[in-house]
Amino acid sequence: MELGPESQMSTSKLPGILAVRFARKGEFVTRIIAGEAVVVPVRGQVGDLDAIYHLNHVGAFIWNLFDGQTSVRDIAQAVREEFDVALEYSERDTLQFVDALQSAGVIEPSV
To answer: Which pLDDT value is given to residue 45?
Structure first.
């Protein structure tokens, strides 16, 4: 996940999803391999290399905040503070990352 003005996601979805809290699905575990965070399925798709996700430093930071308690708004704020970027960029890029992981079935809204 890269932070900055070159990201191409519309912010029109932001107001509604910022309040949502996401949790990591139990079918995935995180491992640190050679200093890189890797999300690996523990069942089902374990042999499918497309189901293994490599996260950069920002992605790993966000991944650790998918605890089912922290809202997307709070995650974006934490990204802003941790990486010293404008809130506009952290919100947009956090939403883009949430969309990608939710589409991949790796995270889900908490209940």
So the answer is: 52
Show the DSSP H helices in the chain as ranges.
14-17, 57-63, 72-83, 87-103
Query: What CATH number did the domain enclosing 47 receive?
Result: 1.10.10
- Residue recorded with tokens 């990204």: 79
pLDDT at 13 over 90: no
Q: Give Cβ neighbours of residue 69 (< 8 Å, ≥ 6 apart).
A: 21, 110
CA 9 to chain CA mean position, Å: 14
The total number of structural domains in the chain stands at 1
pLDDT band at 111 (very low <50, low <70, confident <90, very high): confident
- The answer for 101, left when phi > 0, alpha when psi is -120 to 50, beta otherwise, is alpha
